[in-house]
Amino acid sequence: MATTKTKVLIIGASGETGRSIANGLLEDGGFEVYSFTRPASAQKPQLLDLAKKGLIIRQCDLSAPEEELAEALRGIDVVVSSVGPADQLSQLNIATAAKAAGVKRFVPCAFITVCAPGGIMWLRDEKEKVYNHIKQLKLTYTIIDVGWWYQIATPRLTSGKIDYAMTVANDELVEGGKTPSAFVDLRDIGKYVTRIIVDPRTENKMVFSYNTVTSPEDIFAMVEKMSGEKVERKHVSKETVMARVEEGRAHSETYPFDASKFTLRIAAEYQLSWGIRGDNVPSYAKYLGYLDAKELYPDFKPITLEEYIQELLSGTATGIYTDRISRIY
Amino acid sequence: MATTKTKVLIIGASGETGRSIANGLLEDGGFEVYSFTRPASAQKPQLLDLAKKGLIIRQCDLSAPEEELAEALRGIDVVVSSVGPADQLSQLNIATAAKAAGVKRFVPCAFITVCAPGGIMWLRDEKEKVYNHIKQLKLTYTIIDVGWWYQIATPRLTSGKIDYAMTVANDELVEGGKTPSAFVDLRDIGKYVTRIIVDPRTENKMVFSYNTVTSPEDIFAMVEKMSGEKVERKHVSKETVMARVEEGRAHSETYPFDASKFTLRIAAEYQLSWGIRGDNVPSYAKYLGYLDAKELYPDFKPITLEEYIQELLSGTATGIYTDRISRIY
Predict the structure, then answer these.
(1) Scanning every residue of chain B, which has its alpha carbon at the shortest distance from the alpha carbon of A134?
(2) What is the pLDDT of residues A11-22, one digit of tens each?
(3) Based on C-alpha coordinates, what's the Rg of chain A?
(4) Phi then psi dihedrals of residue B241, to 5 deg
(5) Closest Cα in chain A, distance from residue B32 (Å)
(6) Contact B128, B91 (CB under 8 A)
(7) pLDDT for res B250
(8) Contact criterion met (CB < 8 Å) for A136 and B129
(9) Can you tell me which residues the record assigns to a coiled coil (chains A, B) (predicted)?
(10) B142 pLDDT exceeds 80?
(11) Which of A120, A204, A287 sits opposite B204 (nearest CB)?
(12) Whole-Å CA distances, B16 to A152, A253, B33, B186
């Protein structure tokens, strides 16, 4: 049956979201999975791991001319992009090439929390430029946004017991931590993607994929209860978040993108969107036109927050961004 | 039953689209119809005509502070905006005020042909800024776009017989005039609006309202056949349209809006969108997420193109933009 497999090409397969997607597709078995990888990244251990599982690596420079990109995309059914914040606009040429190559569906790099475009989150607005370009091309697309990852949602324990899987201290609670928000296990994103990209109902639609809706404070309380340890809370006011947003914006007004300038901004604008505005909830996603993955796939069994915390406490969880040291959220 | 009437406030009631909407709502009988009118416009004959039919005029400056706008909107169920191209961004404050006043549905000024945002049509992109603001407010909205008006779609006859109702010569055919496009009778827009704004299916949706899909060349041929006269055709190439677009853009890069600079650009970009790109068709509207008014209201009896041309030839049609002299198409 190899000839009937859907050919999916992932752009950004070595990132956190990209690996989740690659693993989801490879484990599903119904896909032939390719990756565009720039020569400099071809030897990344994350990619070599995926290659062992069946990922086919095509070396390709994302900034290559359109014709070259189109040639490299020939025969691909679905493109899924999970490029980093700095590379969003590199998707413009890729989408044009995908149209020329007859790609049947283009999944641009969304994979963030729910937020309206137009000045709240710089990262969201970068993505909107790509979406608009796709729509002008009349290219079949699906936009997949996700809950906030469990993997950056749990707080540190003072004993240090779960530091092995903590990228950041994550001890902040915005506005008392009571704002409801959707959360997802990073590993489930790829599993959602395997369903969404072959589903005719999701053509030219946005889909919100999340596992549960809860609040940061409820997650802190759950970690305390399950660990038997006290969790430290650093309360952050709306005013503090807004000051960070203003500072982040003031430092990132110029292109080209510079990660050191934009990280503060991205982090602060996330807190503004899901922490202050309460954007990252299914009802708002529905208002904005998203389909709800829970309604599309009622049989999908997501990893529960409790299961993830249990893993974390038993020492078997996997940390994220392990190749970086900077504060992320 | 007066107390159960839906209270609708129109912004821009004296314009072509605004009058169609006001007439539609007033003739329907199910609405209490208000208009925000700036003091300078209160004595416009178009408004006085509508007032005779029942329009209630509230003098209000659109640039008033938000609190004042909110006070003036108190008790209004639906706001429908049909402001001119230069006033699109005045809707930002009005939307904020509408949210504060508890307005149940906000219909921003769309009412143009179908086009994706992001650099094709300046006018479309101005509107997108307003839509994004509405979405950030989480205000219930409906976006209504429409076909190209019959009233500016028929060509001049060399006899001059229908000049009485012609604003422009409209003798141009872009790319042979073969690109399919949706058309509407200006008078039907208001009738569509009366249905759409009380329809729960259209909440937080875009709706495409049009009467028929045909091509400019087919309209020219229909006018020839029905009049027995020859119609002059001025063929315009893609290159000519693109040169106009470039010239229009070069002359309109600065704010504030200056009609004399933007009219060329708006006209050229319309030709680019519906004439070259073929954007203004139901299939593309559906791709972009629009509901189709024909599917929502299968019993709606629109004025046919043939009926309009018959009116035109019999001397009973009404011209548009009669208070202006510049070329509009």
Answers:
(1) B116
(2) 999 999 999 999
(3) 19
(4) -60, -45
(5) 28
(6) no
(7) 86
(8) no
(9) none
(10) yes
(11) A287
(12) 54, 41, 17, 8
Q: A289 touching B, CB under 8 A?
A: yes
- CB of A152 closer than 8 Å to CB of A170: yes
User: In chain A, which among 71-130 make CB contacts under 8 A with chain B?
Assistant: 116-120, 128-129
Q: Which of B131, B132, B202 is the best residue to mutate to test the A interface, defined by the most A CB atoms within 10 Å of its own CB?
A: B132
Q: Are B179 and B241 in contact (CB under 8 A)?
A: no
Note the pLDDT of residue B254.
62
Active site residues of A: 127
Looking at the complex, report in whole angstroms how far the Cα of residue A117 sits from the nearest Cα belonging to chain B. Answer: 6
- Which residues on chain B are in Cβ contact (under 8 Å) with A118? 128-129, 132-133, 135-136
Residue B96 host element (H or E) = helix B91-101
The span from the CA of A80 to the CA of A63, in Å, is 17
Contacts of A105 in chain B (CB under 8 A): none
The pLDDT value given to residue A237 = 97
Q: CB of B62 within 8 Å of any CB in chain A?
A: no
Alpha carbon of A134: minimum distance to chain B alpha carbons (Å): 9
Residues of A in contact with B92 (CB under 8 A): none
Contact A293, A190 (CB under 8 A): no
For the stretch B209-264, pLDDT in tens is 999 999 999 999 999 999 999 999 999 999 999 999 999 898 876 656 676 778 88
Q: At what angle do helices B259-270 and B238-250 cross, to 10 degrees?
A: 150
Per-residue pLDDT averaged across A238-267, rounded? Answer: 84
Determine the 3-state secondary structure of A80 from DSSP. strand
CB under 8 A, 24+ apart: contacts of B53-59: B53/B22, B53/B23, B53/B26, B53/B27, B54/B26, B55/B10, B55/B13, B55/B22, B55/B26, B56/B32, B58/B9, B58/B34
Contact state of B133 with A120 under an 8 Å Cβ cutoff: no
Helical axes A305-314 vs A216-227, angle rounded to 10°: 40
- Tell whether ipTM is more than 0.90: yes
Distance of CA A62 to the CA centre of its chain: 20
* Dist. CA B24–CA B18, nearest whole Å: 10
DSSP string computed for B190-219: HHHHHHHTT-GGGTTEEEEE-SEEE-HHHH
Q: State the average pLDDT for chain B.
A: 93
Say if CB B130 and CB B91 are below 8 A apart.
Answer: yes
d(CA A215, CA A183): 9
Q: With contacts defined as CB-CB under 8 Å, which chain A residues touch B204? A: 287-289
Nearest CB neighbour to B116, from listed A119, A132, A288: A132
Angle A227-A230-A235 from CA coordinates, rounded to 5°:
125
Mean pLDDT (chain A, rounded): 93
